């Protein structure tokens, strides 16, 4: 297995972390990364790192760089329609028991760059290309590429191609949409070229009726910028709003921005400034958030990694890091026995991912549809923070040993580098 030949579909966080650890396990492995975009996508909203993923970034030697490039966000402040603070939920200062703001809050593009930099000169990256189809054979998996129509055989095909993974659909003999579980969230991210937080390192969040929420997060850029998020949370029965959002999403950025103008212009607070900034932004991105609930993570020599196998809003980045490390570790532990390595990965990773996804309705609970619901939520937030119950709960949980649930990572014997 010293000449392992692997194809990774997707150059994002999951694919990059897997390539890093696979090269630790097999330094002379041949790794090809195929990326459908014409270049590395180094944009995106802030993401965080939690649970066992914190240990993994330390073992990668990436913790210091991640902290250096973090957003320096100190917590989340809930505000009312006039911008008056209702409650402030601060970061804990701990990596084992974190609040809404992680100790490792970093923009997705910066994190992706940190992860792929150590492997770029050791892998072959093919841009503007994707997997059109594959065929399982005795000697490996034969992959045909969409643009070149060239067919090549690999020992392993790793699908790290995101929520709408085409490879997942082919592996499960279904459409990619069949495994997407709707959590009722549509979201738009963009950078406002003004510091709407006026130098504060506290993020701010405001909720209006009909599940409309506006978040502003600090950006460390010295030019003075703000990262904005427009999040629309719908109930399961609100099919009319879902249809409007999905139609706008399919029709592209301009269509979605037009709908955001229409839906958010009257919510108050800083909405006018944010919508103006949206029109001036050059990094607008919109998406329908969902979970991936796949019945299995591998078939033959094809395996799902990261969002392709277990997308989980709020915890997806950490799951991708954990899954990448675990998959590479199992391939290390079972040299020459890819089926056993993939079966171990599937048996351990899938239950952990499902448990991490939790129950449905969480986003609807924290983003009420009515003013009455928002008032109740804000009152609870205010009570918890005023009495410092949030800090007490974290301190007590740490004292009795109850911290963030971790994946039971084996003690792999990585080759010394």
Biggest beta sheet summary: 7 strands, mixed
Structural class: alpha/beta
What is the number of E strands?
A: 18
Question: What is the helix content?
Answer: 25-40%
Q: Based on CA inertia axes, which overall geometry fits? A: globular
Instruction: Kindly estimate the percentage of residues that lie in beta strands according to DSSP.
Output: 15-25%
Number of helices: 14
Strand order of the largest sheet: 5-4-13-14-15-12-16
Q: Extract low-pLDDT stretches.
A: 94-98, 392-403
- Give the averaged pLDDT, no decimals: 90
Radius of gyration: 22 Å
Distance between the termini: 19 Å
Please give a handful of descriptors for the protein shown.
single chain, alpha/beta, 417 residues, globular, seven-stranded mixed sheet
Q: What can be said about this structure in brief?
A:
With 417 residues, the protein is α/β, with parallel strands linked by helices.
Characterize the structure shown.
Strand 4 (75-79) and strand 5 form a beta hairpin. The strands form 4 sheets. This protein has a 7-stranded mixed beta sheet with strand order 5-4-13-14-15-12-16, with helices on both faces. It contains 14 helices and 18 strands. Mean pLDDT is 90; it is low at 94-98 and 392-403. The protein starts with a strand and ends in an 18-residue tail after the last helix. The chain is an alpha/beta fold. The chain is globular. Helix content is 36%, strand content 24%. The longest helix has 20 residues, at 338-357.
Indicate the topology.
Layout: E1 5-9, H1 13-25, E2 30-35, E3 46-47, H2 52-59, H3 63-68, E4 75-79, E5 85-90, E6 106-107, H4 108-116, E7 124-127, E8 131-137, E9 140-145, E10 151-154, E11 156-159, H5 166-171, E12 180-192, E13 202-208, E14 212-219, E15 225-233, H6 239-250, H7 253-264, H8 271-280, E16 285-292, E17 298-299, E18 302-304, H9 307-310, H10 316-333, H11 338-357, H12 362-366, H13 371-386, H14 389-399
Parallel strand pairs: 1-2, 1-11, 2-7, 4-13, 11-18
Antiparallel strand pairs: 3-6, 4-5, 8-9, 9-10, 12-15, 12-16, 13-14, 14-15, 17-18
Helix pairs in contact: 1-4, 1-10, 2-10, 6-7, 7-8, 10-11
């Amino acid at each position: 297995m010293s000449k392992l030949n692997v194809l990774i579909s997707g150059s994002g966080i999951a694919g990059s972390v897997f390539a890093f650890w696979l090269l630790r396990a097999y330094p002379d492995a041949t790794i090809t990364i195929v990326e459908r975009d014409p270049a590395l996508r180094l944009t995106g909203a802030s993401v965080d790192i939690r649970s066992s993923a914190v240990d993994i970034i330390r073992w990668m030697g990436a913790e210091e760089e991640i902290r250096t490039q973090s957003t320096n966000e100190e917590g989340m402040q809930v505000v009312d329609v006039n911008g008056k603070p209702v409650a402030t939920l601060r970061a804990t200062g701990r990596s084992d028991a974190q609040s809404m703001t992680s100790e490792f809050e970093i923009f997705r593009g910066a994190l992706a760059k940190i992860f792929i930099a150590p492997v770029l000169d050791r892998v072959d990256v093919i841009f503007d290309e994707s997997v059109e189809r594959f065929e399982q054979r005795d000697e490996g998996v034969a992959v045909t590429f969409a643009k070149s129509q060239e067919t090549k055989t690999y020992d392993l095909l790793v699908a790290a191609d995101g929520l709408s993974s085409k490879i997942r659909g082919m592996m499960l003999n279904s459409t990619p949409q069949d495994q997407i579980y709707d959590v009722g969230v549509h979201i738009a991210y963009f950078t406002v070229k003004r510091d709407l937080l006026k130098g504060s390192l506290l993020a701010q969040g405001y909720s209006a009726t009909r599940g409309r929420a506006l978040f502003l997060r600090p950006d460390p850029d010295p030019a003075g910028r703000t990262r904005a998020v427009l999040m629309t949370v719908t109930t399961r029965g609100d099919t009319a709003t879902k249809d409007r959002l999905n139609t706008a999403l399919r029709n592209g950025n301009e269509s979605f921005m037009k709908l955001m103008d229409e839906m958010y212009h009257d919510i108050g607070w800083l909405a006018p400034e944010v919508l103006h900034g949206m029109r001036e932004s050059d990094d607008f991105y919109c998406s329908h958030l969902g979970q991936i609930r796949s019945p299995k993570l591998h078939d033959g020599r094809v395996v799902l990694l990261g969002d392709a196998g277990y997308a989980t809003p709020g915890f997806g980045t950490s799951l991708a890091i954990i899954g990448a490390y675990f998959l590479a570790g199992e391939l290390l532990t079972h040299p020459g026995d890819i089926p056993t390595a993939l079966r171990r990965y599937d048996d351990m990773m899938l239950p952990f991912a499902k448990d991490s996804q939790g129950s449905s309705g969480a986003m609807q609970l924290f983003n009420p549809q009515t003013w009455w619901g928002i008032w109740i939520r804000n009152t609870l937030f205010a009570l918890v923070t005023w009495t410092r119950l949030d800090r007490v709960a974290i301190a007590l949980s740490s004292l009795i040993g109850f911290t963030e649930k971790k994946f039971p990572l084996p003690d792999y014997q990585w080759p010394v580098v």
